Request: fold
Amino acid sequence: MNDQLVTCTGLTKRYGGKTALSGLNLELGRGRIVGLLGPNGSGKTTLIKILCGLLQPTEGAVLVDGQKVGPSSKAIISYLPDRMYFADWMKATDLFDLFADFYADFDRVRAMSMCASLGVTPSDRLKSMSKGTKEKVQLVLVMARKAQLYLLDEPIAGVDPAARDFILSTILTNYNEDGTVMISTHLISDIEKVLDEAIFLKDGQITLHDTVDNIRERENKSVDALFREVFRTHDLEGGAF
Amino acid sequence: MFGKLLKYDFRSMLKQFAFIWPAALVLAVINRFTLNGLDSSSAVGETTAGITMLVYVAILVAMFAVTMIFVIQRFFKGLLGDEGYLMHTLPVRPWELIGSKLLCAVATTLLSIVVAICSILFIVPWDGVNWGEVFSGLRYVLSHWNSHATHAFFFLLEFLLFLCVGTAQSYLHLYLSMAIGHLFNKNRVAMSVVAYIAINAIISALLSFLGAAGFRFGFFDIINNTEFFTSRPEAVIHATSLTAILSISLVGAVYFAGTEYILRKKLNLE
Reply:
C-alpha cells in the first residue's frame, strides 16, 4: 500500500484556449474527509474527472494508490458525478447487480438497507422515480462501496438544507474509514463541521491546503469565513452564496 | 470483465427489441392467412390483405431503422454521453467497452436479418412444395458429397463471414466518426458527420490507389495467368472473397484502433 493515496504533479488541463487547471500539485493521505472548495468554474469538477479517468490532463501526472489512472485505480474509486448517469429503463436493483458484478467492494446488503432508510423502493423503475429519488439511488450506489477514494462532486448543491443533512449523514455513516472522502462544494458552512482538511481552489490552482483545525487556529476564523474573504470578488459575480 | 459488459449490452438490446421482433413474426403469420386464406375477389378481403401487408412492411422497415438507431445510440449516449460517466468509471479497458458494444451491435443486426428472413418464410404458403422430394434431394446431395459441394459450402461460409465483417466494419466507421466528433467542444454531432464523410473519402482514395498499384505491379496478372488459378476457377472465387474479407477486416481494425486511442487518451466527457 502506498503512503499517499493521491499524488498530482504539475496537473494542467486546457479546453481550447481556456485553462481549467494550471500546474496543480496535490498530495492526499488516507482516512480523511477533504473539502474541495472553490467557486463555480474554479476547476473542482475538472480535477475530480481527471482523477476518475473521464478527462485526460493536458500536462502533468496523476497517481492513485501509486498507480496511473486505469482499471486498477477505477476499482478503488467511488465517484458521484454531478448528473444522472444511468439508463432509464433499469431498476435500482439492476444497477446493484451491475455494481456487484464490476466492483468487488460493493455491498449489496448495505445498499438495500440504505434504500430502506432513505425511503427508496429499489424494485421501481428509474424512469418512474423523481429527480430527488434518483439522486438518492446514485448516492446509495456510491456509498455502498468500501472504496479507498470517494469522489463526491457537489453532492449537496441541488437540494434543500434538510436534505443536505440527510445526505451528509448518509455519507458519514457509510464511508470506509480507511479510505478518503473528497467532497467538492461551494456550500462550505454546511459541511465545515465534518471536514478534516480543506483545499481552496482558485482559477485552477490550489491556494490553500491544510487541516481545518490548523486553518481555524492560524486565521482565527471558520473555514467558511475565510472562504468568503478569499473569494469575495467571486461573491459579487454570484459564484458563492 | 468483458463477459460482464456483454451481459449488460445484450440485456439492453433485448429490452429494446422485445416488442418489435415478435411483432414482425406475428404480423407475418397474420399475413399468411390474409394473403392466402381470404377471398381476394371480395373488396373486404382485398382491403384487409392490403392493410395487413402494409403494416407488415412498415414494421420491417421500422425494425431496421430501430436497429440502426440502437447501434448509434448505444455508442453515442452509452459511451460519449451521460451514461459514459458510469461506463468509463467501471474498472475495464476502453477496448472492452468498444468491443462489447460492437459485438452486441453486429448480433442485433444479424438477428434482425434472421427475423426478417423467418417472417418471409412464414408468409410463403408452401402449398405446392413436395417435401418428400425436397428431403430426398437433400439426401442425394449428402450421400453424393463431392468437391463442388465442399466449395459451395465454403462459399456460403465466406459469404456469412463477409456479412459479419462488413457489418462490423461499417459500425466501426460510425464509432470512429462519433469519437472524432466528440473531440470538438461544440457541434459534436455535425463534426461526427463531417468525420464520417472524411473517413469515407480517405479510405476510397486509399483503396483506389492500392488497386492502381496492384495493376501497375502486376498483382492481378498472378491470378489471371498462374496455372494454379486458371485451372481452378473455384480458387479465384475463394481468393477474391478471402482478399475482400481480409481487406475489410484490416480497415475495420484501423477504425477500432483509432476509436480505442481516442477513448483511452483523449476522452473528454463534459
